[in-house]
């Protein structure tokens, strides 16, 4: 099964209340997104959004099994959509992340 990189920025982080969802994941380090991202409230949680001209968002990077994606999609629910986020200053460094779904 393929391994993927996942950027998390809220309750899935190591100190977050829902980190158990990533118990099979390997922590790779603390990272920031590239410029152009921000966090917006979705109920009691935050969601990643792309905002031209915005700064970066701090978070954590994990390596996960591709088989974990359906579980995470279900956990994140209808308010979020999985996409690709740019990381740091490297132009081609990316990871998966959960974004606020457009309404």
General description of the model:
The protein has 103 residues and is mainly beta. The chain has a single domain, classed as Hypothetical upf0131 protein ytfp, CATH 3.10.490.10. 8% of the residues lie in helices and 46% in strands. It contains 1 helix and 7 strands. It has one helix at residues 69-76; strands at 3-8, 26-32, 37-42, 45-50, 58-65, 80-86, 94-100. The strands form 3 sheets. Strands 1-5-2 form a 3-stranded antiparallel sheet, with no helix packed on it. It has a two-stranded antiparallel ribbon with strand order 3-4. The longest helix has 8 residues, at 69-76. The chain is globular and about 35 Å long. 25% of the residues are buried.
In a few lines, what is going on in this structure?
This protein is mostly beta strands. The chain has one helix at residues 69-76; strands spanning 3-8, 26-32, 37-42, 45-50, 58-65, 80-86, 94-100.
Which descriptors apply to this entry?
Hypothetical upf0131 protein ytfp, 1 helix, single chain, 103 residues, two-stranded antiparallel sheet, three-stranded antiparallel sheet, globular, mainly beta
């Amino acid at each position: 099964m393929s391994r993927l990189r996942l950027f998390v920025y809220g309750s899935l982080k190591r100190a977050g209340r829902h980190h158990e969802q990533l118990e099979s994941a390997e922590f790779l380090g603390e990272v920031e997104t590239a410029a152009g991202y921000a966090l917006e409230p979705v109920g009691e949680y935050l969601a990643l959004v792309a905002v031209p001209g915005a700064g970066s968002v701090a978070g954590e990077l994990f390596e996960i099994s591709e088989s974990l994606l359906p579980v995470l999609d279900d956990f994140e629910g209808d308010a979020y959509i999985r996409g690709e986020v740019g990381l740091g200053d490297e132009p081609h460094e990316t990871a998966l992340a959960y974004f606020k779904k457009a309404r």
